[in-house]
Amino acid sequence: MTAADLRVVPSADDVARAGADIVRAAAQEAVRRRGRFTIALSGGNTPRALYALLAAPPFGGEIDWAATQVFWSDERCVPPDHPDSNYRMAREALLDRVPLPAANVHRLRGELPVPQQAAQEYRTELQVVFGKTALPRFDLLLLGLGEEGHTASLFPGVPVPADPNITVAAVFVPKVNTWRLTMTLPVLNAAAQVVFLVAGEAKQAALRALIQGPRSLDLPAQRVRPTDGVLTVLADQAAASALP
Ligand code: 6PG
């Protein structure tokens, strides 16, 4: 990855603020050019502060929420009100605080007893919004970075169907001993813009591997390389301190 793709900022709050700036700019550009903005939210904890910023002035009033379609890049197989739900985190931090039409919220139904059914349902939902022809191309796709190099719910050593038509997969992740729903690499790499949000000392090794390599096919985050899109890594100083 070129250094130009990496932006190091002092703190986790600065990651959130820089991320909110990117979301606002991407939303305004997409609505200006195409009349809508499609975004895939990341789960985990890091994005919470970014979502909270988007819900408040000045960001909240500068995004056309009625033209915004919200998806998730992954979800845990839990009910939507479960503390581990990525949907719940985004709903509390953002969705309940902005005038986003309910029809624009595309939730992965992690509560379904058969995860594969939830994955199939989401593949269909993507086709409804993006069309059946090509891969869904998000205007903006947010991702986190796990300590061991996972992103979305693509984990090292966890096989995911290679078929590009399988845009959403259900995977059992031994590391967390749970089923997860995740967008697959073809979708991540079809996005117009991908932003990694990385904060904290615990991410030093994963960030170093993401930025410097060595390249390994078993490091999902390293395999995020948008085919025709912009890739940005927003990292705080704590996560980036191991970089040269
Ligand atoms: C999830 C995420 C996952 C997350 C990373 C980083 O469902 O957990 O999508 O990929 O982004 O694990 O999580 P933190 O931001 O909490 O460190």
In short:
The protein is an alpha/beta fold. Helix content is 30%, strand content 19%.
Q: Fraction of residues in helices?
A: 25-40%
Q: Architecture in CATH?
A: 3-Layer(aba) Sandwich
- The poorly predicted ranges are none
Number of strands: 9
- How would you describe the shape? globular
Cα-atom Rg, whole angstroms? 17 Å
Mean pLDDT: 95
- The tally of domains stands at 1
Task: Tell me the layout of helices and strands.
Elements lengths: L5 E4 L2 H23 L2 E5 L5 H9 L12 E5 L1 E3 L9 H8 L21 H16 L9 E4 L24 E6 L4 E6 L1 H4 L4 E6 L5 H9 L17 E7 H4 L4
Parallel strand pairs: 1-9, 2-3, 2-5, 5-8, 8-9
Antiparallel strand pairs: 4-7, 6-7
The structure holds 6-phosphogluconic acid (6PG).
6-phosphogluconic acid binds next to loops.
